[in-house]
Design a protein that fits this description.
The chain folds into two domains: 195 residues, ATPase, nucleotide binding domain (Nucleotidyltransferase, domain 5), CATH 3.30.420; 177 residues, 2-Layer Sandwich (Nucleotidyltransferase, domain 5). Helices cover 42% and strands 18% of the residues. The protein contains 13 helices and twelve strands. The protein has a five-stranded mixed β-sheet, sandwiched between helices. A five-stranded mixed β-sheet has the order 10-9-8-11-12, with helices on both faces. Helix 6 crosses helix 13. The chain is globular, with a radius of gyration of 22 Å. It binds 5'-O-[(R)-(carboxyoxy)(hydroxy)phosphoryl]adenosine and zinc ion (ZN). Zinc ion binds next to helix 6.
């Protein structure tokens, strides 16, 4: 019988700060199950709205501000925050580790000084891909806690978190088989990844320019919709469907006919820009209902175009590699139309039978997925020495193998 492990997950790769504590047992291949003991998330979306995207320096500061309160929240939910009655001497090099993060250090000192060391077996932290300045905040936080509490660290590839999350349901694995084909769609990534066993990945296709989420965000900006654009476009497209609005224009499905598993979304963004510009400079002053209708038509046709391209190439890839299980992960997998189209096409074809997608709340960035991916590595004893942790903005899934 395998022992249980408590894993603290830390996520700071983009504009969500996440801290999560899970208790898990078993291995990837046998008897795995887990409980969420605490889970906390702080979104910076409101802050970045003004810029229409993530502003790295601002993001870094916000992560530094959010981490200690989120850790306290997580440990409180878990019932793991216990006042230390006796005199406390906090050991470790955390002062040194956090010397470039004075605000984080200042917030951490009272926590370390007044509470007992919680029972945690490993700290799982995102080391990439993402924004390096923000990744460093999470890494240094993990190192400081590791030093003060003497807990080993597991480094986690953020994308593996997006792969693992859809495999779970109610603390257990869903039923599925390797090989799996993962369509990973987020703000920074769009790729098709083949996996024959846990921890081994082969990228068979990717975007040649913008990521799918980036395309949603950029098109939203062209339509004067707030950041992040995915949910906004999706809402307008749904409205267009319910009103049965038929667009009188069509965008070309990018790279759909090409004999590869790559994607391209920047041309689509340009097509939207040209269409908006063709309406003339005074168009934005046209009657509100006309403008709304036009935006809905664009949202509908754009979403349809992205969904068709993603779904078609994913199914072709599954076919080519004889895959039965498709995983869709990353923030864009919250998109209802993409899921619906994929499920429909799967039903009509003799191809893959299983579709693993997580709920919209867990599709976007969170620390639960980091704790989960981290657990499987911790369970195999794959720890990293604190001093050798490095943020890697372009970290690839293949390098895990
Ligand atoms: O995975 P994620 O939270 O962060 C990154 O790792 O990038 O993904 C964020 C992206 C954003 O581009 C956002 O617009 C997109 O996911 N997104 C959506 C939806 N919800 C979030 N895109 C399309 N439809 C949605 N419902
Ligand atoms: Zn992500």
């Amino acid at each position: 019988m395998a022992a249980t492990m408590k894993i603290l997950g830390i996520e700071t790769s983009a504009d969500e700060t996440g801290v999560s504590l899970i208790e898990a047992e078993g291995s990837f291949d046998e008897n795995f199950h887990f409980k969420i003991l605490g889970n906390a998330l702080a979104s910076q979306i409101e802050l970045h709205r003004e810029y229409g995207g993530i502003y790295p320096n601002l993001a870094k500061r916000e992560h530094a501000k959010a981490l200690v309160p989120l850790l306290i929240d997580t440990l409180t939910q878990a019932g793991s925050l216990k006042k230390d009655e006796g005199p406390t001497f906090v050991k470790g090099l955390f002062h040194e580790i956090l010397k470039k993060e004075p605000e984080l250090l200042e917030a951490l000192i009272p926590l370390l000084g007044s509470y007992e060391r919680p029972q945690i077996d490993a700290i799982a932290v995102t080391v990439g891909p993402g924004l390096e300045p923000t990744l460093w905040v999470g890494i240094n936080f993990a190192r400081a806690l590791s030093s003060a509490w003497n807990i080993p660290i597991v480094e986690v590839n953020h994308m593996e978190g997006h792969v693992v999350m859809p495999m779970m349901e109610n603390g257990h694995f869903r039923e599925f088989e390797f090989p799996t084909m993962a369509l990973l769609i987020s703000g920074g990534h769009t790729e098709l990844v083949l996996s024959r066993e846990f921890g081994k990945y082969e990228r068979i296709g990717e975007t040649r320019d913008d990521a799918a989420g980036e395309a949603f965000d950029k098109v939203a900006r062209l339509l004067d919709l707030p950041y992040p654009g995915g949910p906004e476009i999706s809402r307008l497209a749904a409205e267009a469907r319910s009103r049965n609005l038929q667009p009188d224009f069509k965008f070309t499905r990018p790279m759909l006919r090409d004999d590869n598993f790559d994607f391209s979304f920047s041309g689509l963004k340009t097509a939207v820009r040209k269409l908006v510009e063709s309406q003339g400079p005074t168009f934005k002053n046209s009657p509100r209902s006309d403008l709304e209708k036009f935006k809905m038509q664009i949202a509908l046709e754009f979403e349809e175009c992205v969904a068709e391209t993603l779904v078609e190439k994913t199914l072709r890839a599954a076919d080519e590699f004889d895959v039965d299980t498709i995983i869709v992960g990353g923030g864009v997998s919250a998109n209802a139309r993409i899921k619906e189209l994929l499920a429909n096409r799967m039903m009509q074809s003799a191809g893959p039978r299983r579709l693993l997608v997580t709920s919209p709340e867990l599709a976007t960035d969170n620390a639960l997925m980091i704790a989960l991916a981290g657990y499987f590595h911790a369970q195999r004893g794959e720890f990293t020495v604190s001093d050798s942790l490095v943020a890697n903005g372009n970290l690839r899934l293949e390098t895990l193998s």
